[in-house]
Amino acid sequence: MAVFKEMLYGGDYNPEQWPKEIWLEDMQIFNDAKMNSATINVFAWALLQPDESTYDFTMLDDIVEMLVENNYQIVMGTSTAALPAWMSHRYPDVNRTDFYGIPHKFGHRHNACPNSPTFRKYSARLANKIAERYGHLENLVCWHISNEYSGECYCDNCAKAFRIWLKKKYDTIEAINQAWNTNFWSHTFYSLEEIVPPNYLGDGIPNGKASFAGLSLDYSRFNSQSIMQNFIDEREAIREFDPKTPVTANLMGAYKPLNYFEFAKEMDIVSWDAYPSFDTPFSYSSMMHDLMRGLKDGQSFMLMEQTPNQQNWQPFNSLKRPGQMRQMSYHAVAHGADTVQFFQLRQSVGAGEKFHSAVIGHVGNKETRVLREVTQLGNELQKLGGALLDARTPAKIGLIFDWDNYWALEYAIGPNVELKYVDQIHHYYKEIYKRNIPIDLIAIDSDFSQYDVILAPCLYLLNDKTAQKIENYTKDGGIFVTSTMSGLVDENDNIHLGGYPGPLKEVAGIWVEEFDAMPMSKKIPVHFTDTMGHGTLLCDIIHLEGAQAIATYGEGEFYQGMPVITSHSYGKGQAYYVGTMLDDQGMETLFNQILEATTLTSLYLPEGIEVTERCNDNGRFKFILNHLGKEQQLSIDIVGQDLLTDENVSNDLTVAPYGVKIIKLA
Ligand code: GLA
Ligand code: ZN
Prior knowledge:
With 666 residues, the protein is α/β, with parallel strands linked by helices. Among the domains are: 188 residues, TIM Barrel, CATH 3.20.20.80; 200 residues, Class I glutamine amidotransferase (GATase) domain (Rossmann fold), CATH 3.40.50; 57 residues, Immunoglobulin-like (Sandwich). Helices cover 30% and strands 21% of the residues. A hairpin with a 4-residue loop joins strand 15 and strand 16. The longest helix is centred in the middle third of the chain and has 27 residues. The site of alpha-D-galactopyranose (GLA) has 10 residues, from loops. InterPro entries: Beta_galactosidase_C, Beta_galactosidase_Trimer, Class_I_gatase-like, GH, Glyco_hydro_42, Glyco_hydro_42_N, Glyco_hydro_b. One of its GO terms (cellular component) is beta-galactosidase complex. Its EC number is 3.2.1.23. It catalyses: Hydrolysis of terminal non-reducing beta-D-galactose residues in beta-D-galactosides.
């Protein structure tokens, strides 16, 4: 069921930073732009609570009253993402200690220690008071808890809480020693008190590596859960007065420190902030949207923030070209967004974000390109109404994204510094993307049986339960594709002994003896039956144990002639193992072969054109997006009506620069 009754159109609105005369101008401008929603109270803790015992809602009351009068759907922040100065001074336990062991003073935002008793008490109390006051409002459509939860803390309170977490997980110190293999470098612990968080002063290494990956991995899990607990604290405090309005926290794509699959289970709807830079590949932006949709098994998400024009925090803050903001908004919708929201509605006069664009710029009037484009989009979204709400993406390919793997793979010292988890996932994603075949980003514990193909590159960390699930999936007829750096370690980051890829050996029908590593600038030829490509980064030395080689290494290295890509019939299914990082040509040959056994068809379109599909009870909708600022022609097998223009569309199309078509199929 759809969470909202129409698409929300609005964004972060900070009237508390402005005199009241300005508020009325704002309303006029937003109404004319057909906005129907505002996200308020995201950073106002210091105003709402001037001291320990006083709460002052006068200003927020006025803001809410104005929005209600103007019929806005309110997304209500809880304001707990930036501490008030008095709290930070009076109760230093709220301040974080960073990776270098430096205890922080008051300042910045996203700054609370997640295990501070003071922070936990006051953040929940504030959320509770806001819910008591506004939770009954009909205009309230969503709770936005905190803001962009992020970072880590290494303070003494966190250390204490970590020891309790460890005790609960392992029970005995012997079990911890075993899990982390502590006889290495004389780390054997005799009591929990001896264990310290793995920061720079301990076992952490500044480049993101870890000398005890088992320990660092547990700390990542612990930190992620601690922050998630802050969210739960506030959600529960809200629920005391408001049992039903959906609750979210705005996420940040493939943000490393927080396990979003775990986090999303605690939310009613996922929301996220999309800030691609001028050179982010379109396939990467698509992948981030798909990841956000995947967090709750394909449920629609909120595009909580995007900038109407330029950002200010990138190295190069390019303007969005005419039409590009609109196109990027629909890009999110094409991948599952049910809202289009901006950061921010009025551009700040001072402090750190004064050069960040907004719907209303510093000129303060409506005579801007940005506002004209925002208004055009507002009119279109109003026309779309609820047609696309809760529409799903019919994907038959699932690509595993897993935070445990993300952390563990990158904590490992060796074999290759250029090995980056998200890049490897994207490498597979973009091969499917360029064929315009729908794909889901999925959790490792999701139901594989709904997919014809499961892609699991760099499935480095693998427990027996998941290995069993993969075997069953393949046996029952699934196509399973994995790669080098898979099946190597268990959940504690200890090697699965007995040959790589550990528990995947049987299903893959191979044994990997060694892996060579090289910079991506070095290429090793890969020979398929009729064509060739190249491999780089890692080259596995593979022995066949039931599988067939579908490609072998070419000249250049001592493993010339040995298998590099293998295929194994297993039960009713097929398992592929890709022993290197293939170039685009190699990927294309490989996936032509893999997809041949499915009913999925590739649709190659001109560079910069993307097609996606969403379906709901209202019908099937094809989105045609032009990511480039030039007109493009295409011929494509689609017949229907464009929801944006009411034009009938059949097969041959002209797509304007940054153009978008949303075609309801006949
Ligand atoms: C993030 C934050 C916002 C704002 C924007 C600027 O997404 O949530 O408060 O700082 O970045 O791009
Ligand atoms: Zn802390």
